[in-house]
Amino acid sequence: MATLTHQESATAEQLVVTDGARKIFFTIILAGVVLLVVGLLTAIFHWGEAHEVVGAVGHEEGSPIWLKRLLVSLWHSNIFFLGVSAVGTVFMAINYVAYAGWSVIVKRITEAFSVWIAPGAAIMLVIFLVGRHDIFHWTHDRINTKGSPNYDAIIAAKSGFLNLPFYLIRMVSYLVIWWAFSWKLRKLSLEEDLNGGTQYFHKSVTTAALFLVLYAVTSSMSAWDWVMSVDVHWFSTMFGWYVFASWWVSGIAGITLTAIFLKQNGYLRFMNANHFHDLGKLMFGFSIFWCYVWFSQFMLIWYANLPEEAVYFNQRLGGFNGQYTGLFFFNIVINFVFPFLGLMTRDAKRQMIILKIVCIAILAGHWSDFYLMLMPGTLKGENGFLIEIGVAAIFLGAFLLLMTRRLSEASLIPVNHPFIDESVHHTT
Amino acid sequence: MTKRFALGVFEDEDVLLHAIDNMRGAGVKIYDVFSPYPVHGIDDALGIARSRLPIAAFFYGMCGLAFALWLQIYTLGFDWPMIIGGKPNIALPAFIPVAFELTVFFTCHGMVITFYTITGLYPRFKTPVMDVRSTDDKFVMAIELDENNSALPKLTQLLRENGASEVNQKEMTKK
Fold first, then answer.
1. Which CATH number fits domain B2-50+128-173: 1.20.58, 1.25.10, 3.30.70, 3.30.565?
2. Where are the domains of chain B?
3. pLDDT digits (tens, 9 = 90+) for B95-108
4. Which of A7, A289, A302 to probe the B interface (max B CBs under 10 A)?
5. pTM for the full predicted model
């Protein structure tokens, strides 16, 4: 609130995305394409497979493995980036509803994050319409028809919820809700920049409150639809929270990382260690929250040890010749132990270099968390990394291009926000 | 031992923060400031060094964790092994909730006790208060005086200039 160090008020700052920065983004995309091509070729020609087991494992049906891996990894990275992008709006909405002042200085970053919702939604619909059979077991032909060779009683019992029309309606409504509220909040914010006055703030609070109610439901349900239903025989009541926690902490890490890069390039003049401290606290806290949810899910399943539930962890711990075991433990270390110890002290949260390392670790860690949620259910033992990392790099480059373009469209500081002064004078 | 204090009473936290800066700039040593609620930035303004309580808290937490793990591993694994739910005697996932709770328990109790001991704010029958209004709506700045109150006239003027609504004198006896 009150610091005596300066009494200046905030002024508008315009981000200029340099050609150098754009070149870096295109390089990331290019590197992704190269990795993807190498990965695809490797998968098609089975390079590097010493012991030929092709055909022995056998995928029940559908596409060749390279196509399957491509579709699943597109789905995987898209869900991660779409979720992180939506978290931009969620973060802003929560701060509106809480009447929080300190976060105003990063508000434009959160707005810019939501730019990916529209392209992400389009990609998601296309992947689902084209490649759903390779991702979702429950979409197979006649799986709900009694007497057909494909018939599966458990899936048939779930067909009231998991059927194509209803699934599509749900998917489109989640995406439209996320997109529309992001668009509305962005519009109000830009109008506020032009005209000033508090009416935009009050309107934003109302919009944000409504959005949060809807997001609470849609984030949970989208987690069941998009992630949990790949393991269609299995279910977990913690899953909505688990996916949300993953998106949320990665979103905060992304926002912090963007703020650090902007700060290090001379923007965000009034952003100081106090703001980074608060962002760091949120990352620290929500890394613990993620682990709490993860452990709650794990411990109940481990303790009860019911076959239909435990299969999820059997696959990930030692299943498929232990393919996922290393990643399983890596997941906990990088998403919980590392941020927990790394961000524990006050100084760590106030220094950009440590924050930067932890942000990158959290983003990579939660991307692999989604990997671990999706791959065993879809690809079984035939997973890999080249295609997946390639696809992720392409998404990252495209996301950065769009996000920085939107950042440069308006002042980095929302000068007419009623709480901007509080944010400038924030102390922790 | 009796100590004498000049008490500047302020109505507003911003005025108080500026007053602290100006008084310290004028070379006055401020004994302490009492406020009804925590004021942001007041530690920096007063030049108070950061507390080392978090370091103590970390070690209390480690003690709690060690105690919880020892308790469960010793009792369930060695002293009286029992098979529960077909799990091994030392089943770590099942120990984590208790370990977590005891870590928190040790940390908060240790911190509260340490804090009260260091600051002297522990509960007692008669609490020394400079000015009771600092628990309601006033901010009180205390400055220690010498035997003869020689600095009082100058301090009074300085406090008044910096927005104190009144300046009082108070003697505190430490038993």
1. 3.30.70
2. 2-50+128-173, 53-119
3. 999 999 999 999 99
4. A302
5. 0.89
